[in-house]
C-alpha cells in the first residue's frame, strides 16, 4: 500500500498538468524507459499517432527516459493503476511470472527465425506468457516490442567464458544473472538508466545490454569493448492497466489493440536492420569482438545448465514455455 501511494504521488504533478483543452479526451499516460529517439520510443510514438488518428477522444501522453518510473517499478505502477500504461523489459515481470525469463535462456532464441516464431502474437509461447502476466500483475500486454539480441560491454575485451571469471557484470534480470554465474562472473542487477554512470565509475567490469541501447545511451563513451554474443533475445512489452482497459468502450479497445498489433509488426520486421545500422555506427566508436564458431561453442557449453535451472525453479509454466519456444 505504501508503494502504491508513493507511485500515485509521483504522477500527481503530471496529472495536474493536463490542460482544459484535453479535459474531454480520455488520457492514456505512458511511462517509457528509453529516449524518444530510441527505436522503442519511435515505436511508441507510432502507436500514439495511430490511436489518436483512429479515435477522436483518446489522447496519449508519453513520458520518456524513465522520468516517472524506473523499469523495475513499471509492473507495480501499471498494475496498481498509478499510471495507465508503460513499457518495460519483459524480465521485469519475472517476480510475478518467472516463466517470462524464457526469452533470456542462452541460445534458445539465437536466430531470426526462432525469434519470429516464438514471439509471434499467435504463438503458443505468447499465449502462455501474456495470460500469466495479466493474471498475476493486472497488466495487459498490448504488444511486444522487439529490442534485439544481447551483447556484452566490457573494459577489457571478452572472447571466451574465462574472460568473465571473477568480473562484476551488469544484468537486468534474474536468469541473466544465472547466465553470468555459469560463466564464472558476479551478476549485478541494474536498471538500464543507471548503466552509463555505473560503467563510468567502474562499479561493474562488464554489462549485458543490446546494440540499440548502447547507441542511444552513448554507452560507448564509457565502455571501449563490445562482444557480439547474440546468445539471447531481449523483449520489452507495452502494458496497460487491466481495469483501465476494461473501462474503455469496445470501439476504443479495438483501436488500442489494432494499433498495438500494427506497430509490433513494424518493429519486428525492422529490428534486425535497425541492429545492423546501430552496429555499423558502433564500430566507429568502440572495439567490436565477433566470436568464432569455436568460441561460441564454449559459451554454449558453459551455459547449457541454465535451462535446466530455469525449468527446475519455474515449474510447469516454465517447462511449458520452453517446450513451446523449442
Structure description:
- The chain has a single domain (2-316), classed as D-Maltodextrin-Binding Protein, domain 2.
- 46% of the residues lie in helices and 19% in strands.
- With 326 residues, it is an alpha/beta fold.
- Strands 1, 2, 3, 4, 5, 6, 7, 8, 9 and 10 form a 10-stranded mixed beta sheet that branches.
- The protein is built from 13 helices and 10 strands.
- The longest helix has 33 residues, at 250-282.
Task: Break the fold down into its secondary structure elements and pairings.
Blueprint (H helix, E strand, L loop, with lengths): L1 H9 L1 H5 L9 E6 L7 H16 L3 E6 L10 H7 L4 E5 L22 H8 L4 H14 L1 E16 L13 E4 L2 H9 L3 E4 L5 H7 L4 E5 H6 L8 E4 L4 E9 H6 L2 H33 L4 E4 L2 H11 L2 H20 L1
Helix pairs in contact: 3-11, 6-13
Amino acid at each position: 500500500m505504501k508503494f502504491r501511494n508513493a507511485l500515485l504521488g509521483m504522477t500527481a504533478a503530471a496529472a495536474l498538468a493536463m490542460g482544459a483543452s484535453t479535459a474531454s479526451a480520455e488520457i492514456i499516460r505512458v511511462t517509457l524507459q528509453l529516449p524518444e529517439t530510441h527505436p522503442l520510443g519511435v515505436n511508441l510514438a507510432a502507436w500514439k499517432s495511430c490511436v489518436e488518428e483512429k479515435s477522436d477522444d483518446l489522447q496519449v501522453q508519453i513520458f520518456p527516459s524513465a522520468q516517472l518510473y524506473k523499469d523495475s517499478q513499471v509492473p507495480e505502477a501499471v498494475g496498481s493503476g498509478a499510471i495507465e500504461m508503460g513499457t518495460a523489459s519483459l524480465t521485469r515481470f519475472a517476480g510475478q511470472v518467472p516463466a517470462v525469463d524464457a526469452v533470456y535462456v542462452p541460445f534458445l532464441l539465437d536466430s531470426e527465425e526462432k525469434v519470429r516464431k516464438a514471439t509471434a502474437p499467435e504463438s503458443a509461447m505468447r499465449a502462455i506468457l501474456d495470460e500469466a502476466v495479466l493474471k498475476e500483475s493486472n497488466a495487459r500486454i498490448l504488444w511486444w516490442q522487439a529490442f534485439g539480441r544481447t551483447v556484452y560491454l566490457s573494459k577489457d575485451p571478452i572472447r571466451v567464458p574465462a574472460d568473465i571469471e571473477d568480473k562484476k557484470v551488469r544484468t537486468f534480470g534474474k536468469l541473466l544473472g544465472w547466465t553470468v554465474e555459469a560463466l564464472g562472473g558476479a551478476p549485478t542487477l541494474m536498471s538500464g538508466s543507471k548503466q552509463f554512470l555505473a560503467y563510468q565509475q567502474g562499479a561493474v567490469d562488464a554489462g549485458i545490454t543490446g546494440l540499440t541501447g548502447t547507441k542511444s545511451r552513448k554507452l560507448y563513451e564509457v565502455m571501449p569493448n563490445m562482444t557480439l554474443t547474440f546468445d539471447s533475445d531481449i523483449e520489452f512489452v507495452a502494458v496497460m492497466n487491466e481495469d483501465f482497459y476494461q473501462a474503455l468502450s469496445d470501439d476504443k479497445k479495438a483501436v488500442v489493440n489494432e494499433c498495438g498489433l500494427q506497430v509490433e509488426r513494424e518493429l519486428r520486421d525492422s529490428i534486425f536492420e535497425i541492429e545492423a545500422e546501430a552496429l555499423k555506427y558502433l564500430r566507429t566508436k568502440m572495439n567490436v569482438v565477433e566470436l568464432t564458431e569455436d568460441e561460441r561453442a564454449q559459451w554454449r557449453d558453459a551455459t547449457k545448465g541454465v535451462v535446466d535451472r530455469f525449468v527446475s525453479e519455474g515449474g510447469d509454466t516454465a517447462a511449458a514455455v520452453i517446450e513451446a519456444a523449442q
